Amino acid sequence: MTPLDEHRLQLTRREFLGRAGTGVGLAALTGLLGNERLRAAATTRSGMARLPGLPHLAPKAKRVIYLFQNGAPTHVDLFDYKPKLQQLHGKPVPDDYIAGKRFSTMTGKADGKLLLAPVEPFHQHGRSGAWVSEFLPHTARMADELCFVKSLHTDAVNHAPGISLILSGAQIPGRPTLGAWLTYGLGCDAENLPAFVVMTSVSKGTTCGQIFYDFYWGSGFLPSRYQGVKFRGSGEPVLYLGDPPGVSRTTRRAMLDDLAELNELKLREQGDPEIATRIAQYEMAFRMQTSVPELADISREPASVLELYGPSVKEQGTFAYNCLMARRLIERGVRCVQVMHAGWDQHRSLTTELYTQCRDTDQPSAGLVADLKQRGLLDDTLVVWGGEFGRTPFIQGNLDDRKLWGRDHHPYAFTSWLAGGGVKAGLSYGETDDLGMNVVRDPVHVHDFQATILHLLGIDHERLTYRFQGRDFRLTDVHGKVVNELIA
After folding, report:
1. How far apart are CA 236 and CA 242, in angstroms?
2. Burial 110-140 (b: 16+ CB within 10 A, else e)
3. pLDDT per position as a tens digit, 57-95
């Protein structure tokens, strides 16, 4: 059976209602309203409508900004303070901490590996007394606004599978990502911008070879209109915003109207949801020719706001610039913004590139939270900061060669933080052992993390499903429980 035939047999209620609108109702509108109103009706039908019955519960957040740190930030150097790690610096890791553990091929067996103390000192901050390293002074000053989850753990030991798992619920590419699920279920309020936007950056001079794969923001088996739209880091955020020479806006509008009519005929004939996607995306592209230049014009941002994000905020393609753009996007109704920054893979660069990574991301991350709060947007905007796993408490490299100190991949414990969107501010949840090696209290698997994020947006993670190849799929696969202790 072909995928198209299978799709016809597995018609969902939502698709049935959508196609019904394409048939008799839309044909009647053609005569009554004329071509322009028909186009508008088609756009509404194929746009980002909310699924019937959603939200399942009262949402605390309306939108998400995910500050994803590709390469795995080192929890034991940034957030998870362990005095014993300092005391045992240079000593072999005790066998009972690593028994039965699987590490990357770069480590192999961890037997005999030497423990490495945190590179920079830790201090407690705010009324909450949260421990934060001197690597992150701006984040430290925001500690009472943040909810630290220190007991995360994952099943993946390498980057691409780990990122895919935490963003899509599966290590193998091909599943819808968080942003795709959110826009599929909740729709979007933005009429002139995509519902799910992605921006990427990397620190200058880094040796990290992390790649941004498109499946990190893909829609998987969902219709492709739910996939993330990547904004470029230089030049026009989206290509071909301007009309070609000699083509006026009126001419472009007429061309798209004619094209939409042809696509509508094909949609009625075949019922392929990708045709509906094409209609909607052509229309969105036309609208973005006006909305994106206005979005990217930050000249009217007050100096006091720009200062929050740090000195590189005006430089397109930087993490700081992308954080500011994230705030401007959610102000305009975008449902999910995924800001990805690569370079955290410090196998041999803890004493060099980790400083660069923190300098480039610390102030913009804290500045975004402060900016959202002063605008009254933090209460219903969920900000998530974190990577795909942590890094080993033991050293990768030679202890006598400080310039090349590093840490390997560590799936057994890592830290992320949340802000706004209904989470408990000033909370440090979960605990690892005295070396930061294993979770010993309140473990949070990545599927639990996903279930909690969906819950904050009013979604029961077990009920938001999509049937594909004879099975109902969901973001959390067949796992996950909501961590209610994180919710205010």
Report:
1. 10
2. beebbbbbbbbebeebbebebbbbebbebbb
3. 999 999 999 999 999 999 999 999 999 999 999 999 999
CB contact at 8 A, 176 and 41: no
Is residue 225 within 8 Å of residue 46, measured between CB atoms?
yes
- C-beta of residue 45 within 8 angstroms of C-beta of residue 157: no
The 10s digit of each residue's pLDDT in 244-279 is: 888 888 888 888 888 888 988 888 888 888 888 888
Pairing outcome for strands 390-391 and 122-125: unpaired
In a domain, 3, yes or no: no
> Does residue 223 belong to any structural domain of this protein?
yes
| Residue 405: inside a domain | yes
Task: Work out how many domains the chain is built from and give that number.
Answer: 1
Q: Reply yes or no: is the peptide bond before residue 55 cis, omega within 30 of 0.
A: yes
In 3D space, the residue among 219, 217, 243 whose CA is nearest the CA of residue 230 turns out to be 217
* CB-facing half-sphere around the CA of 248: CA atoms within 13 A: 3
Q: Is residue 285 part of a domain?
A: no
Compute the Cα dihedral for 435, 437, 439, 444 and give only its sign.
positive
Supply the CATH number for residue 63's domain.
3.40.720.10
DSSP for residue 22: I
